Amino acid sequence: MERKKFYINLGSKEISQIKYDNNDEFTIYATTDEVQTLRYKLDNMNDADTRAFYRAHVPIMPYHNDESNDDYDNEITEAFRMIYELGDNVTKQHIESMGILSDHHM
């Protein structure tokens, strides 16, 4: 399958083939299947974030026992790993400088 260039913005959870405004936080080269997998991870991050928002309004549920926070952390780590693997040299250097995957094998 042919790899195409995509621009990623994790803050807005955007994946685009068109560079626009600030959507180029990371640049990757991916197949359609790989982009679909990354989209799935970003959607799971969004779902976990929404659950954490609702959990935050329940005072009897402690933050450190919140599965939604763990889910979000796992999904964003997996998204960073995938972006690193598919990224160009600038993307790889950026992720390395962040240290987000330092506990994981790159």
Q: Mind explaining what this structure looks like?
A:
The chain is an alpha+beta fold. The protein has one domain. The protein contains three helices and three strands; from the N terminus they run βββααα. It has helices spanning 32-55, 67-86, 89-98; strands at 4-9, 14-16, 26-30. It has a three-stranded antiparallel sheet with strand order 2-1-3. The protein is elongated and about 50 Å long. Keywords: Hydrolase. This is Hydrolase. GO terms for molecular function: hydrolase activity.
The low-confidence parts are none
Computed CA radius of gyration, to the nearest angstrom: 15 Å
Distance between the termini: 24 Å
Largest sheet features: 3 strands, antiparallel
Q: If helices are DSSP runs of H or I spanning 4 or more residues, what is the number of helices?
A: 3
Question: How would you spell out the order of helices and strands?
Answer: EEEHHH
GO molecular function, one term: hydrolase activity
Keywords: Hydrolase
Organism: Lentibacillus cibarius
Protein name: Hydrolase
Keywords:
elongated; 51% helix; three-stranded antiparallel sheet; alpha+beta; 106 residues
TL;DR?
This protein has 106 residues and is α+β, with helices and mostly antiparallel strands.
Write the layout of secondary structure elements.
Elements: E1 4-9, E2 14-16, E3 26-30, H1 32-55, H2 67-86, H3 89-98
